[in-house]
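Take a careful look at the protein record below. Let me know whether the structure tokens fit the sequence:
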Amino acid sequence: MLETVRERHAAYYLTLAEQARPFLEKPEPAWLDRLESEHDNLRAALTYFAAQEAMLDQAVQLAAALIPFWRARGYIYEQMTWVVGLALRPTPPTQARVHLLGQAAMAIAIDRGDFLSAKRMLTEMLQIARQLEIRVGIANALNGLAWLMNEAPSAGSEHDPVAARALAEESLAIMRELGDRQGMANALFMLGRLASGAGDHDTARTRWLECRSLDQELGVKGGLVLKSLGELALERGDYAGARDYFETFLIERHEIGEHWGIMWGLQGLSAVAWAQGEPKRAARLLGASLTVRESIAVPLSAEGYASYEARQITMREALGAAALAVAWEAGHSMTCEEAVRFALSEGLA
């Protein structure tokens, strides 16, 4: 009897996650909040499925459906435990596994710097997608491999931006043929990164603007392309444009409660303030971004601390140690809500 109840419980939450899935890609705050309230039940369902070899496919389906929720709400532990954990287990070659492998590859490369394992996952993803004739999966795998080849350390054998561009172009062609606007946006974002990395900022901007247009059509909130367009505008000296992009990014990430994006938005607006000759405001925003970063249950890496320290040194030279300490602490003592309000209020030092 108890076993039957557990099975029905798990099945119910798998159905709920699948129902939520179309609304999570945007993502819609109401669905994020609903899954947040049911998170313990969803974890219990995953635990139940994963404990039984005969139900591993259901575990993969559930984990794959929850990826956008975990990503939006910053649940790094769940992504590494369930997404990567299940990807490393021999589960059936299904459409759900195709999606899971793509996300696991990104997680293991970004969070662990394990590009070799990521490449194996993406290669398996491509093989399964071809075997099952899932063209969207093929295109996503190609785009994932393009990302890997671009982001991998330059000293590694996986680093190959030229090959990455060819893969991203192939991914875009498939997505255009299928009329998959989300897939097109993903490929265009990747091609913009590749163009930017090659110093071709005009092409990068064109690709990213098309990506942004697709995001708007799809109702996507807080797309990373906003951050990239903000950084490009800042580099070009278009401070008003940069501010607009970073503010929109911050507002939309705040709407969905995604702290990684809030942190990046605050950092971007700090850079704009610095470029416009407002060092105190820049220091407060940067200090606030560190507080938001610390609220995420993942320790700041040595590289991350080094980045903050390097910026502090530059600011100390401009403001002096005492003034920097006051401005930094004013920002660092803010709550997330206070930091967002301050960032969006122009003219306040």
